[in-house]
Fold Alkaline phosphatase family protein.
Amino acid sequence: MLRRSSAAVSLLSLLASAGIVLAGTPAPAQLPSSVDEPRVVRAAEADSVLAISIDGMSVAAVRKLGRKQLPNLHRFMRAGASTTNARTAREMTVTLPNHTGMVTGRRIDAASGGHGVTWNDDRPTPSTVQAAAGHDVASVFTAVDAAGGSTALFAAKTKFSLWQRSWPDAIDRTTIDLDNSALVDELVADLAQDRDFRFLHLALPDTAGHAHGWMSRPYLRAVRQSDALVGRVVKAVNADPVRGAGTTILLTSDHGGRGAAHKNPRVLDNYRIVFMARGAAVDRGVDLYDINPAYRDPGTSRTTYGMRRPPVRNGMVANLALDLLDLPAVEGSELDAEMDLRLTAR
C-alpha cells in the first residue's frame, strides 16, 4: 500500500544543495526442485520495507562474537532468511560505491552499465550519480516515488548527501547524523509516518576499524553496539502490531575488513558480507541459498557478474525491496532485476 508524503526537507547552509537534516536539527513533520527450472517471481507481501546497512561489519566479527554477544543479529537470523556468505560489488569494497549499488541495483563500472560512483568522500563533483554514470540512473527511491509512495534516508556519514542531490524529488526525508544512537532515535520517531521505504546506514564498525583495525577490541565493541541499535529498531517496528506485521527489514553491509583496511576487493574478509531479512513474507530460520536454488553459495570465491547461478549480493537490496512492495524493478538495474530472490521456500 503506497502513500505519498508532501513534506519538504530542511536545508542547512553546510549542505544546502543536498537538502539534508543534520545532527541536532529537528526534521519537518512528514505528512525450485531443480536449478534448470524457470525462475519464479515471488508475490509481494510487505506494506513497508526498511533496509539497514552496517558499514564495515565483517562476517568474521559476526562469527567470533556469536549469539551471546550479538543477540539481536542472531535473533534476526533465527526469525528470518539469511546468509553469512553474500558478496559486495566485485569492483570495489568501499562505502559509497557499494551503498549506491544497494539503492540502484547496478554494478559500479559505468562502462559496463554501472552507476559510476567510484569515490568515497564528500567531493562536490561529480555532483550526482547521473553525472558519474554519464546517463540517467534510477533508484529504489525513484521507483517508489513514481508509484506515489514515500521514502526516507537516515545516514551516519555526510557523503550520503550525494543521494539527495541525485534524487531530490524522490527522497522525502534525509537525515544525516554522525551520532549513530541519535540517528536511530530519528528513525524510530519517523516510524509514526506512513512510508514505504526507509534506508538506515550505521557507521560504528567502519569508524572503529579505520581507527583501531578490524577485529580489534574497539572494533568488536562497535559491532556489539551496532547489534544493540538493530535491536532497538526491530523493537520499535514491532511495538505496533500492525506495523510489525506489514514490515520487512533487510540487513546487510557494504564491506568487511581485515587489519587496518578494506579497500582490496580481492580479499575474502573484505568482499564477504551478511545478507538478512525478517518480517512480512519471510520464512523463519532459513538459509537464503537453501531456498534459492537459482543462486549459488560461492564458497570463498570472489565471483563475477553474469553468472548462471550468482551469489547473493548487497546490490540486490533495491529490487528485493521493490518486489516486496509489488513494484517493478529499478529501470536499468542488473542485480535481482528478474526479482527472483525469494525469502520463502516454495
Remarks:
- The longest strand covers residues 272-279.
- The first helix runs from residue 59 to 69.
